[in-house]
Protein 1
Amino acid sequence: MSRSRSCLLLALPLLAALAFLSACPGPTPVYDGGADFQRAGDSARICQPNNDGVIALSELSFVVGLGASYLVNPPGTLVDFDAAGQLLEGATEWDFSSTAGSVAAVKLEPVAGTWFAKHFPKATFAAGADIKAETLQVLSLDQGQLLLLGLASRQPDSTLMVYDTPIPSLRFPLRLGDSINAKSTVTNGRLGGMPIATEDTYDIKVDAQGT
């Protein structure tokens, strides 16, 4: 994990998971991480953050093969964490100093060549919907928006949910106070091999800014 002096954290609800996105890390690593925790390394240096409190698309790298490492608590354990952060010298600061837990890597993956590619002709890449990544979010980066096109399982013909209208999960530039409320439907879908039709509502807000 590396430190960015100015970043926005966005909680993006996808199924039961919360994915947290922040601006590109700055050049100063907070941890050397120990044997298991992978430092940001070269992938972080692709980004060029300017630490102005606004995240432009140019400050992020959506490249197949790049990803993020997450620390996952061992089963039955909790790590004490203050999600609200602390106000220090007029700015919010979160403490991510705990390196307890096991490392899980989530990477952007290609859609071409997958069993579900034909159902998402405008897809740019896919990413795990949770840490296990048995189900993938299928995404498109288009005109400054990261669009959620639907969900698909790695296992052929198990889960396939194609939204009739893509969900704008991120709109750039990102800044404090931005919000998105979007609704879309899936018809003739499958979830875990069972037929499904659903109407999903996404309520997304950039509700905090800090370090």
Note: Residues 41-45 form the longest helix (5 residues).
Protein 2
Amino acid sequence: MYPILPYGRTVTVLHRYVSGQDQWGNDVYSYTSENVGPCSIQQASSRENINFADQAITGVVVYVPWGTQISYLDAIVVDGTTYEVNAEPDHWTSPFSGRSAPIRVQGLVVKGASP
């Protein structure tokens, strides 16, 4: 059997967890990293926010192998850029074959300044 994504690439998933609290009682987060692949990487929309800010917001869609543990709390690193996972990843199963498809993960990165 051949892989579903024979020319896919490897990405890094950063799993976030609470590692303590700061002096004001706020949660402090740390990350563990995991290399995942093969993945399909597709650029998504990019937009600019100029309402009281100067920001560029860029999206990416990454299809990771079925069974990958990833949630909206995590981040994904693609070509050196860290994208925050935006919403819950999508899990799909074909109603025709019963086979599981790769998991669709949407990521966003925001660059720039805001007041």
Note: The chain has one domain: 9-113.
Protein 3
Amino acid sequence: MGETTIDERGRVLIPQEIRETLALKPNQKLIVETRGNEIVLRSVIHVEKFSKELKGCIHGSKLKPLQLKEIWGIVHAHH
């Protein structure tokens, strides 16, 4: 957990410890959303990378990778 400040242009610096823990890199795309009165940041996952990571882990499943993304609430960067 860390503390930060919103600057005059609305920017927020994510503390270094959190960036390192989550392996966040410069220019990485993030999704910004609200949950109640919280601000949530999460990484954008591209469908190609997502599909590669799923290969072999859902053997025998009738669900396609895009259906799993919908179930898990992962946003497709191209939609």
Note: The beta strands are 30-35, 38-43.
